[in-house]
Specification:
This protein starts with 9 loop residues before the first helix and ends with a helix. It has a single domain, classed as MFS general substrate transporter like domains (Growth Hormone, Chain: A). Helices cover 83% and strands 0% of the residues. The protein is globular and about 60 Å long.
Length: 409
C-alpha cells in the first residue's frame, strides 16, 4: 500500500529545499557561462568546449566517486560538495569582475564543477530512498525534478538576464551564495546517511568495491541496456545543446535575454511532466512510455532543425523538457527500487558513466559538425541516433521487462 505523500519525513523536504537553492544557482551560472564563452569566441568547437569540460569528469571519475558515495555519509558529501561549488563559482565571479575572464579559465572551472557533480549527483539520488521511503519514489523524484526545472530553467535564466544587466560577474556571485545556502540546509539533516554493510563482512579495498559495482550492473541486462541507451541519448542532446547559444543567436535571431527565455521553455514542459509523469506511466506503462519519449524526441529535433521561428523552437524545447522528466522519473525510480542500498553508489556510478559519458563526446561532436556542416547538423545527427535508440527501446524495454525487474528485486 502506498503511503500518502504528505506523510514523508520532513528530512525529505530539507533535501528538496537544498535542491531548490542549488538548482537556482545552476539556472543562473549555466546560462551565463555559454553567453560568456560566446562573447569571447564565435568558434562552435570552442564554445562547445565548456560543455565538454563539464561532462569530461563523467568519463574519468565516476567509478571512484561511486565507491566513495557508498563509503561516506551522503549528507556530508552533499554539504561539502555545495561548499566547493560555491567557492568555484565565487572565484569565477571575481575573475569576471576584474576583467580576467578567458576560455581556459572557463574550461578549468567547469571541469572542476563537473568533477564535483560525479559525487554530488550520485549521493543526491542515493539519499532519496532514506528520506522519502521506497514506496514514494516516483512522487518524490517528480517533485525534485519540478523544483530543479523551475529554478534551473524557469527562474534562473530570467534572473541571470537581470543580474547580467547589472554586472557580468553578479550571476556567478549570486550562484555562489545559493550554493552556500544549499549546503547549510542539507547539513542540517539529522542522523547518519552512510551505507550500512552486512555485519561480519570482511574488509574490502576501493578497487574490489568498484569491481563489485561493475559486475552487478553488467549482470543486470535491463539496467545495462538502459545505461547504453542513455549514453546515446545524452550524446545527441549534448551535441545539440553544446552549440544551442549559437543556434539561438545566428539562426533564431535571439539576444542574450531571448536565449534565456528560450531555455525557460524547457522548464515549462518539465514542470508539466513532473506533475503528470505518474499518470503517463500509469496509462502507458513504464516501457511504452520510454519508447514514446524517444519517438517524440526524434520528431522534436526534426522540427527544430527545420525552423527559424523562435516561438516554434521554444515549443519544441518545452516538449523536450516534458520528455526529460518522464524519462528520468521512470529510470531513476527504477534504479532506486532495484539496486541494493549498500551498492547504490557504485552501481549508479557505472550506469551514469555509461549514460553521462556521452556528454563530452556529444559536445565535441556537435561543435565539429556545426563548424563543418552548419548549426543544424548536430540536430539531424541527433535524429539518426535517436531512431536507433527508439528501435532498441521497442524491441527490449517493454512494460513486462520493467515489472519483472521490480518483482525480482
Amino acid at each position: 500500500m502506498r503511503v500518502p505523500f504528505a506523510s514523508i519525513s520532513p528530512q525529505y523536504w530539507r533535501v528538496w529545499t537544498a535542491s531548490a537553492f542549488s538548482n537556482l544557482s545552476d539556472g543562473v551560472y549555466l546560462v551565463a557561462a555559454p553567453l560568456l564563452a560566446a562573447s569571447l569566441t564565435r568558434d562552435p568547437v570552442l564554445v562547445a568546449g565548456v560543455s565538454f569540460a563539464f561532462g569530461l569528469p563523467w568519463l574519468l571519475f565516476p567509478l571512484v566517486s561511486g565507491a566513495l558515495v557508498d563509503r561516506l555519509d551522503r549528507r556530508v558529501i552533499l554539504g561539502v560538495g555545495n561548499i566547493f561549488r560555491a567557492a568555484l563559482i565565487g572565484m569565477l565571479g571575481l575573475f569576471v569582475m576584474f576583467g580576467w575572464e578567458s576560455l581556459p579559465l572557463l574550461y578549468v572551472v567547469f571541469f572542476l564543477l563537473g568533477s564535483v557533480e560525479t559525487m554530488y549527483d550520485n549521493a543526491a539520488q542515493a539519499i532519496i530512498p532514506a528520506v522519502a521511503g521506497r514506496e514514494n519514489l516516483e512522487k518524490a523524484n517528480g517533485r525534485l525534478y519540478a523544483v530543479e526545472l523551475v529554478n534551473n530553467q524557469f527562474v534562473g535564466p530570467p534572473l541571470r538576464g537581470f543580474l547580467f544587466g547589472v554586472a557580468a560577474a553578479i550571476p556567478f556571485l549570486f550562484g555562489a551564495g545559493a550554493f552556500a545556502a544549499a549546503s547549510a540546509m542539507v547539513l542540517s539533516l539529522r542522523g547518519s546517511f552512510r551505507s550500512v554493510k552486512e555485519e561480519g563482512a570482511p574488509p574490502t579495498t576501493l578497487v574490489s568495491e568498484i569491481g563489485e559495482g561493475l559486475r552487478w550492473l553488467w549482470g543486470h541486462r535491463l539496467l545495462r541496456l538502459l545505461a547504453v541507451m542513455l549514453g546515446a541519448s545524452t550524446m545527441s542532446f549534448s551535441a545539440v545543446f553544446g552549440i544551442m547559444v549559437l543556434f539561438a543567436q545566428d539562426i533564431l535571431g535571439l539576444g542574450g535575454f531571448g536565449y534565456g527565455l528560450l531555455l525557460t521553455s524547457i522548464a515549462v514542459g518539465g514542470v508539466i511532466g513532473s506533475f503528470t509523469s505518474e499518470r503517463v506511466i500509469g496509462f502507458f506503462g513504464s516501457g511504452r512510455a520510454l519508447f514514446l519519449c524517444v519517438v517524440a524526441e526524434v520528431i522534436v529535433f526534426m522540427i527544430l532543425a527545420s525552423t527559424v521561428n523562435p516561438f516554434l523552437a521554444g515549443a519544441m524545447l518545452a516538449v523536450i523538457g516534458f520528455i526529460m522528466v518522464v524519462w528520468n522519473v521512470i529510470t531513476v525510480s527504477l534504479r532506486q527500487a532495484i539496486i541494493p542500498e549498500h551498492l547504490f553508489g557504485r552501481v549508479n556510478s557505472v550506469y551514469r558513466m555509461l549514460g553521462w559519458g556521452g556528454i563530452p563526446l556529444g559536445a565535441l561532436l556537435g561543435g565539429l559538425l556545426a563548424r563543418t556542416f552548419g548549426l543544424t547538423a548536430p540536430m539531424w545527427t541527433a535524429v539518426a541516433i535517436l531512431l536507433f535508440v527508439a528501435a532498441i527501446t521497442w524491441m527490449y524495454i517493454g512494460n513486462d521487462a520493467i515489472e519483472r525487474a521490480r518483482i525480482e528485486a
